[in-house]
Amino acid sequence: MEFEPANSPDGFRVELGRDKPLRLDSEGELGPFSTAYQTYGALNADKSNAILVCHALTGDQFVLGPHPTSGRSGWWEHMVGPGKTLDTERYYVICANVLGGCMGTAGPQEINPKTGKSYGLEFPVITIKDMVEAQAMLLDYLEIDQLFSVIGGSMGGMQVLQWAVSHPQRCFTAIPIAAAARHSAQNIAFHEVGRQAIMADPEWSEGGYLAGDSFPVRGLAVARMAGHITYLSEAALHRKFGRALQDRSKVSYGFDADFQVESYLRHQGISFVERFDANSYLYITRAMDYFDLAAEHGGILANAFQGVESRFCLISFTSDWLYPTSESRDVVRALNAVAANVSFVEIESDKGHDAFLLDEPKMFETLGGFLSGAAKLRGLKSK
Fold first, then answer.
1. Which of 87, 320, 349, 354 is catalytic?
2. Residue 183 annotated to the active site
3. Residues 25-58: tens digit of each pLDDT
4. Looking at 48, 277, 353, 354, which residue is catalytic?
5. Mean pLDDT throughout 191-212?
6. Which end of the chain has less Cβ packing within 10 Å, N or C?
7. E-assigned strand segments in the chain
8. Catalytic residue among 154, 310, 316, 319
């Protein structure tokens, strides 16, 4: 596997696991495998200012834009950049495409170096823990022993919790936002709807569409539409669309997109297909479904946090029905049970789960204060 130096359309790209393959939760092994990542800012002399940003299900390593596929802004430009909460004039921000993804890191779309063909469904089933271990191998490659912080929302928040548990000495602070320590039955159910939509599309071809000239456009678009509804709130949808009609003055008594909200969802579905792989959607949603920190530790969540050393800051949003505040409180109680250093804020917002991606001043204020305090303890100077 050869990569040009700094580097490819997917950003920086490295090969990992050649000498020591990644041992997966499924007991399989993966290696060598590629990891694509982006960095922002500069690493200081003692490598103490690195922040790992963990992206959500449909995100990727392009925190700041323009995105090489869509041309759009990066997915966390409200949060990351010069003078922003994750100040790239102070911190060295790293974001890697997750294992199983489709933007340069090994996943079902990528070429299996052992066969010279796309993995497809031969790619091993992976977990959140596997994603974190692949990220740890990237940090080893970058020769960064300890992160100043690991931060992420939604699936990114799951990775943050797993980081603090699996590598307690490598995370000075840990910031899970709008996340939970396990995937609920409701969330598994929504993911199953999405997966079934993809697999029911005849263009999916039993996962082998990359070998032909087909692609399960309809199935993946429906999966995205179903998922997108869960990222919003009723208040946000009502404020944005209400029952307004789309380019007409009365309903058609048919099945066209009569309502603006229907047109919006269809647009979300189709634009998603242009930048995401259907098989990756299957693998990553499955990884989220399997996430259950308590189950890995005798069914007691506090046991998972025995020995954690990170300073935690958890954030939830009042209108997030995908990962409600009660699930963040469960994590806080478990951390309190082992006397961990933890802060928690529930932010009043009607923007739903996606609030962590949006302009939420209270979130920035909370994180800015937390990170500034931690930076002083870490000896990081502001410019």
1. 320
2. no
3. 999 999 999 999 999 999 999 999 999 999 999 9
4. 353
5. 96
6. C
7. 12-16, 22-23, 29-30, 33-40, 50-54, 80-81, 86-87, 92-96, 111-112, 117-118, 147-153, 171-177, 311-317, 341-347
8. 154
